[in-house]
Design a protein that fits this description.
- A hairpin with a 2-residue loop joins strand 4 and strand 5.
- It contains three helices and nine strands.
- The longest helix has 15 residues.
- It has a nine-stranded antiparallel β-sheet with strand order 1-2-3-4-5-6-7-8-9.
- It is an alpha+beta fold.
- It has two domains: about 70 residues, Roll (Nuclear Transport Factor 2, Chain: A); about 60 residues.
Length: about 180
């Protein structure tokens, strides 16, 4: 094959393998500012306060707790309680401790990009620095909104983008969601 034809064939093959334009794959730097410093401690499920265990079972009846992390940041204390529902699906509860009481602030699960509402997908694709997320966490909030945390490839520590959906409208957040 002549060099010019070889180059053309290579370009055609690469083009056929590339994702569609609306699925950008470069890992963009986070559009969000870095999150606050967080102190993380692993807690045995057997060591959870009874009031927290009761709240977990009230929120997700029959949940089997697999892992718990206690997180302290900005004078707030959270428990990330991970486990499975009776049907085997994974779930995580983010529970804030306020004094001696506990409050569920988020119910989380991993989802695919296509599982996000159309408005959230459109907002994420249109955002400056859009990327194909490696992981997405859906966080149902107690105020009725849902936060989608999109993690850029190779950046598993913090979401690079967060999209809030409330009353059917989506917006890309410019500041980290507090929980």
């Amino acid at each position: 094959m002549k060099p010019a034809l070889s180059a053309l064939a290579a370009v055609a093959i690469l083009g056929a393998c590339s994702p569609p334009q609306d699925q950008k794959t470069e890992a963009a730097p986070s559009a969000l500012p870095p999150g606050p410093e967080t102190q993380v401690t692993t807690v045995s499920p057997a060591d959870l306060p009874p009031a927290l265990v009761a709240l977990v079972q009230q929120t997700v009846p029959g949940m089997t707790v697999a892992e718990v992390e206690r997180k302290e940041r900005e004078d707030r204390v959270y428990y990330d309680v991970e486990g499975t529902r009776p049907d085997g699906s994974e779930v995580e509860l983010d529970i804030q401790q306020i004094g001696d009481r506990f409050e569920v602030v988020e119910i989380q699960r991993d989802v695919a990009f296509g599982d996000m509402p159309a408005a959230a997908q459109t907002a994420a694709r249109a955002a400056t620095g859009a990327f194909a997320p490696e992981r997405i966490i859906e966080s149902a909030q107690t105020d009725g909104s849902v936060i989608y945390e999109l993690f850029a490839p190779g950046q598993p520590a913090e979401p690079a983008m967060e999209v809030r959906v409330r009353n059917g409208k989506a917006e890309v957040l410019t500041e980290r969601w507090p929980h």
